[in-house]
């Protein structure tokens, strides 16, 4: 017999202790624990579904963004209602939830496994009959019960919430929550935070707030400010009404779309001004910090903050996000500099350094650093050469700089060159090192050669060679017959000897004194070698560098005019020195050096130099300082490519061909100037530039024909018409000479002559508007004619001489003219492909703008801010 009352409570027999624990009791205890937990979850969810559904409904409403639209008080009331409902339902649920007992867990396990005879109770029973037969029967009964419950399953919780929520309201709340999250996208988090913070200010007042925002890049970038809309994009110029409507919508509903990414340099300043805000505005930075505004007037606030990192900037007023701007902070990259071609020596023995430097916002400084190949890289005696910085105007362009290092003690030796570039914030970039041999001047005069040798000894070891150099120079000074007794040389050598003596205290000459002495000896050797031509060239180079540096730093116009005068004087002195050197050679009966046919194009006329100087001066006066700087670089390049005392030698036919090409270039230059003047005259008459067939006012043509040309008698042509006729006749003369030499005349010559004839007829009728078109076509035909003539000349002289005698505009061995440019049909002194020289009409337009600004600046009746604006515009002309 089994006594259900004796179940291990200690009142029955205890001899069956080995069998007191049922088989598999550990696994059964685990299943009973899971059943108890499932039962607790069923009871909890059956009672707690209501507060959970209320929470889901609140999240759906919050993420939808509807709460801020209700206004502050209604918003707060809805929040309070949700909170009260949640608390009441939560308290009721907690009161109804009763923890399950162990018997409840067994009953659930038996119910899930459909055990109607309740075998779990058998495992807890104790036998009432302690006899062996009863115990054996009891053990067998327990083994059978344990076998039945060995594979019991716990089963999933089944709260049967449908009994409590027959209308499935909980599902409606969850579906609404999912839809709200999908609709909100990435704005869900921001909307949820807004839902928790009701704004008690008037939404209409927030919508009326005027927000002005812009990003000011650093000054060194030269970039214009970036004006921003409230909806997170760049300001669009689509009308004030559209802007106002869009801003009002953004203030009421928040930014409608994800803001675009606005690139701004690191270090830019974000400025925001808010007018009449109902509450204090706050800007949230990308790192989450809040930036406060400062008071700006009685009803305005302003803020200015630096942009150091990218991210989203959010402007909030009264808990509403009224503007957002996503900014990408663009770092300033280090500059890059390279050498497009290896440095080389010019005919004047200067070192030509070609370089190209680029940076995000322009290179501020460029330099070349030269160290000895056999010395350390950080040699304290390294040569540092400042190069013209390209700036933003010539960023990445190929530039050239010339430096005369023949006087340096390292001349003729190998050095290692590295180019360095520096931007406005001090970042530097370097080129790959390059090994080269510095140009060295070879002196022909024996005394000059001896002076240079003594100078080299003194430069390498001033202390050890001082006495030997002093004695050598003293001996050389008294050998007057070797240098013709020139008093300048005698006095210079005597001065050098005295400067090498020890002072009264027996001290060696100072380093500064040695440097000055080296300079004096070098100038003396140059004077002996070429009579001062090289010294004049050095003064010209110094004047060029001074003007170049002044243009780079934006000097005032007065200083530029003074430096330009000095450059003009240095140019005249150099040309005069070369002429005197040539006369001395002729007077002494020396054989004149001649220019080989391959370099006959490398010739220059004085009028070319004067024309370039006039252009540079005019560009500076008109504020075109970048163009003036580029033209000055070309002038420097031309002077370095010249070779003093070299005269071209060519055949009579080649000289005649060169004269024809020069005359053709003069015709083209005159035609260009006439076209510019005609264009301006057409604009002043209000006729515009429409070419032939342009409409006229009624009776205008008849009046022009009756009155003659430009108010003159009908028999007397206007000056422009006379000039056009003169140019046409010059072209006819060139055509005649070309035909006599070559036979066939290229078709562009005839086309150009016809267009010039048509232009002259229009000018005689007083119709400059009808002359502009033919003049432009005449220029095109003249350029084609020049190209055809040059090709014909080159073909003829190549066949005759085998190597060809170059015509003007054709390069020699290096296909460059004296300006170092590629061949072109433009007049001498014009820009090459990398430099565009402003045309006459552009120069005239610049002068007109300058004069108009000066006139307005002098009108004291204008407001002060307007006068200040004109003064700032005039700074580039000063």
From TrEMBL:
Transmembrane region(s): 48-67, 73-91, 168-186
Biased composition (Basic and acidic residues): 754-770, 844-865
Sections of the chain in a coiled coil: 533-584
Pfam family of the protein (one): DUF4175
Disordered, as annotated region: 1-23, 237-259, 680-720, 749-775, 801-865
Highest rank taxon of the organism: Bacteria
Compositional bias (Low complexity): 241-259
Keywords linked to the UniProt accession: Coiled coil, Membrane, Transmembrane, Transmembrane helix
Protein name: TIGR02302 family protein
Organism: Marivibrio halodurans
